[in-house]
What does this fold into?
Amino acid sequence: MAKALPLLILATAVTILLGCGTALAQTADTPPEGAPVAPEAQAAPEAQAAPETPGAVPALAPKPVFDSLEYNGGVSPAGTTVTHEFKVTNEGNDALVIFEVVPGCGCTVANFDKFVPPGKTGIVTVSVDLYTEWAGQEYYKSVTIITNDPVNPRRRLLMRGVVGPAGGGPLNRVTPPLPSGSGDGAGAVPADQAAAQKPLEE
It folds into this structure.
């Protein structure tokens, strides 16, 4: 028993020393309450996205520019079809997508290029059937183009003119002079002039 007592005392002393060392290490790693924390020890705040400016145009966006918004077909015989190709150039830096071209009535049909790359020109072809009962009357028919343009996704194109007698006979009706073009007044109306004119109803 006398021999075991020193060993027991030695083991107890070693245990006490090891416990003190661990406590000192934890104390060294933990700053005292109220002490300033190093910048690297602070949690980094979550990155916040910059607020978007209302009405801002995306960095990548199409920019459709039409050669004209209105076409004056002049005098055309009843029973025929008036057709015109509207050209649209994509001056943006992203592809222009034409989702749909909506005619204003059943007498109007449109065919179009659905995809126009940047720097390229697409075609929107609009046709209007001139019914025989329209003879001697003016017509105003439009289509609405729906695109991915973030600034102006809807554009209106107008077809107008006068319906003459079937077979191309003389027009026995005094009509207002038709602007633009020459002769019978046929031709495309420049986009800036068409935009300044009073909107026409179907």
Remarks:
- Residues 174-185, 192-201 have pLDDT under 50 and may be disordered.
- The domain at 64-168+177-191 is CATH 2.60.40.10 (Immunoglobulin-like).
